[in-house]
Each structure stands twice: as structure tokens, then as C-alpha cells.
Specification:
about 240 residues; alpha/beta; TIM Barrel; 7-stranded parallel beta sheet; 7 strands; binds zinc ion
Length: about 240
Amino acid sequence: MLLFGDYHTHTIYSHGKGDIIDNANVAKQKGLKQIAITDHGFDHKLYAVSRDCIPEMKEKILEAEKRTGLEIFLGVEANFKNLDGEIDVLPEDLEFLDIINLGFHRFVKCGTKDKFNLFYPNILHIKTKSQIQKNTDMVIKALERYPIKTLVHLNYGFQVDLKKLVPIVLQKGTAIEINGRKNCLTDKDILLLAEKGVKMILNSDAHSPQQVGEVNVGLNIVTRLNIPTELIVNLDKNFLKKEI
Ligand SMILES: [Zn+2]
Ligand SMILES: [Zn+2]
């Protein structure tokens, strides 16, 4: 099995230690053909990538592609902002984003109501049926509103009802990530996703160049559980296509 690409990596533009070329060089050494640069979304309070940096990032991507021969995609790891399913991506951002990964993070700019309805309960690990339902509805609304390619580190820091997400992720073709650093999906979850035919993706969530392509956590799980390779969108095949 060949890991074709790693579609969740960070750089100095948010919370990562390396530059775009550093991630690309490591990816090349490890035999990957594609990577995505997905720095933390625009409304993260501590590590947000700035929209002002996008032109510079695009230039660096072109240069890194020339030097490594890899295909490199510019994306973002977007944040949920409220229970209405709003995320920190604006319509005009879609022009330069090749991929949107979406995950729950604390420390996101939001209104007072959202602090009490979404952030505080989850930061305090409140896992009542009602909170799980609210979280799940929020994810569904976000998937309906935005072209989300991947839901990243689900159930990390907030809990959803995975079963209820299945119809929408199947309808939208969204991949569920098995995160290389913070996987919170159980064997039972992954078997459920596989049984329903949901696409999954193995990403590193690299915060340093050395971690790019490190997806052993996910690879070990899918191998142990005999998950069909066809369901893993970045094994032996490309997840994204470059638009010409
Ligand atoms: Zn994250
Ligand atoms: Zn990340």
C-alpha cells in the first residue's frame, strides 16, 4: 500500500515549525506524490493563517512544486464558529482554497452566545445527549453550507453522533480523517464507517516537517480492522486533482 498524499500539514504560517518547501522535501523523501498545506483557519485566536499571506504562500507552493515535482495544494484547517454551522471561511476564500479541512478547535473568535452554546460546554467535556445532538447538527449544517473535503480529528475535544453524520458525508463525498496525532475514533466507529461505505483518509496533521507522511496510527488501525483499501482515499490513489 502506498500513501499517495498527506492532506493535513501545517507550516510556519500557523502553528507549524517548517516552511512549505520543508514539508514538500520531506514528503518527497518519503515517496509521497501530493501534499496539502492546511494551516489553522482565519479566526483561530492563537495560530490563524493570515489572508495577507496567501499570495506569498501560493508563490512558495509553485516554487516547491518545481523543486520537488510534487503536487501541492493550498488549503485551510477551518474552525467551527457557532452551532449554526458557520465556519471561518468566506465565500471569496473559495477562490484560492484547493481543500477545506474542518475540525473543532478551542480559542476561536466568536460571539458571547457561541461561547456558551458551543465552546464552553465542549471545553468542559460536557457530553450530554443534548450537547452531542447540537454538535452533530452543527457539523451537518456546515457540510450543507460549505464544500468540506475532510472532517478532521472528529470527537477530539467535542463529541458527535457518528451514525447521524453518515448520510450527509456519503451524500457530499466528505472524507473522515483518521488523524496521525490525535485519533479519537474507536474501532467500532471505524468499522461503522466502513460498513456504510464512508470514505476515510489517513493524515499526519504534521506540525513539523519530519512528521509529514507519518500516518502509522491510522494505517495500523485500518490494517488491523481489514478496512478495504478502496475506502481510504489517499492509499494507492490521489485524493485531489490539480485544476489546469
Ligand atoms: Zn486541528
Ligand atoms: Zn491540524
